[in-house]
Amino acid sequence: MRNGLQIGDVWVPGRVLTAPMTGITDLPFRRLASRLGAAYVATEMVAAAELARARSDVVRRAAVGEGLPLTVIQLVGRDPAAMAEGARMAERAGADIVDLNFGCPAKEVTGSACGSALMRTPDLACRLMEAAVNATSRPVTVKMRLGWDDSSRNAPELARRAEALGVRAVTVHGRTRQQFYTGVADWRAVGEVKAAVRVPVIVNGDIVTAGDARAALEQSGADALMLGRGVYGRPWLAAHLERALADGTVLQEPGAEERLAIVVEHLRASVAFYGLPLGLKMFRKHLGWYVEQAPWPADPVERRAAKARLCRLAEPHEVEAALAELWRTVTLSGNSAVDIEPQFAEAGAA
Description:
Blueprint: E1 5-7, E2 10-12, E3 16-18, H1 27-35, E4 42-47, H2 48-52, H3 56-61, E5 72-76, H4 80-93, E6 97-102, H5 107-110, H6 122-135, E7 140-145, H7 155-165, E8 169-173, H8 187-196, E9 201-204, H9 210-220, E10 224-227, H10 237-247, H11 256-274, H12 278-293, H13 300-310, H14 316-327
Parallel strand pairs: 3-10, 4-5, 5-6, 6-7, 7-8, 8-9, 9-10
Antiparallel strand pairs: 1-2
Helix pairs in contact: 1-11, 4-6, 6-7, 7-8, 8-9, 11-12, 11-14, 12-13
C-alpha cells in the first residue's frame, strides 16, 4: 500500500480517510484526530444553501481552523445554483477539496431530495456535480452509496458520469440507502465502481480493524478506504490503521494515561470552540463513546453506569475529575496512576 492518494492537484498523505459525520467531525474533533496522525478528516455535512446564506451554525460546521494538514468541506443540497455558491464559499474558506454528499440515508435528508435520494435522480445529481466543478478550482469529489435499493444499484453508472463531469474521486459506502446501516457492507460491489472509472475510488462501510481494512481494499480493489462509525471514541484509529497497513505493525490501544489526556484535550477544545454550556453538551456524545471503548472498568455493566454518571455532570472540571478517578487505579506497563493538571478550576472557567 502506497503512502498517499492523489486527488486532483491535492496529495493526501495517507490512504485511511475519515468520513464527514454530522455532529462528530467538528473542528475540535478534526484537530485532535489530525494531531494523532489522521491524514484526512472531512467536515460535518454542510447544507450548501444555508452556507450560501451564511447561517451561523452552518458556517460553524464548515469551520476550517488553522494547523490542519488538509481541509475537506462536504456539501449537501439539491439546488445547482446553491451548490455552486457553496463550492465557491468553501474554496474561499480554505477548502483543499470540496466533497458532495449523495450518500446520507437519514430521512430528514432524503425527505428533502438530498443525500442518497439523489441516487434516484441521477440527472439532478449530475447537474449538482457540474455546478460545483464549474464553480471552484478545487478538486470536487462525491460520496455515494451503491444505490437507493437492491433493484437500483446504479453507483457504477453515476460514477462514470461523475468522472466525465470532472469529479476527481468517488467514495462508495457498500450499502444501499434502504439498508441504512443494517446487514454488512458489500465491499465487492464497490469493486464494480472501481472497474467503471479511472479516478480514485475509496471504499467505506464496516471498517474498524486492520483485518477489515485489508479485506475491504482487497475485495473492492479500491485506492483507499474511509472510516465512519469506527472512530467513535477512537480518534486515533485512522493513524493506527495507516501504520498497520503500511508495515503490518500490530498496534495497541492507548493506555489509561494517554487515553485520559486525549479525552481531556478533546473536552477542553470543545469548550473553547463552542463556549459553555454548549461545548460540554456537544462533547457528551464523545465522552460516552470514550468510556464505552475503554477497557476500564472491566465489567460492561459498571462501564455503562460510569458513562451515565459522567454524562450527567454539569461542569467540565467535574468531568475531568470524575474520569480521572474512574481510571485512577489503572496501571499498564508499570505506568503510575492517572493524573492530570486541572484546567477548569471552577464552574464556568474556560
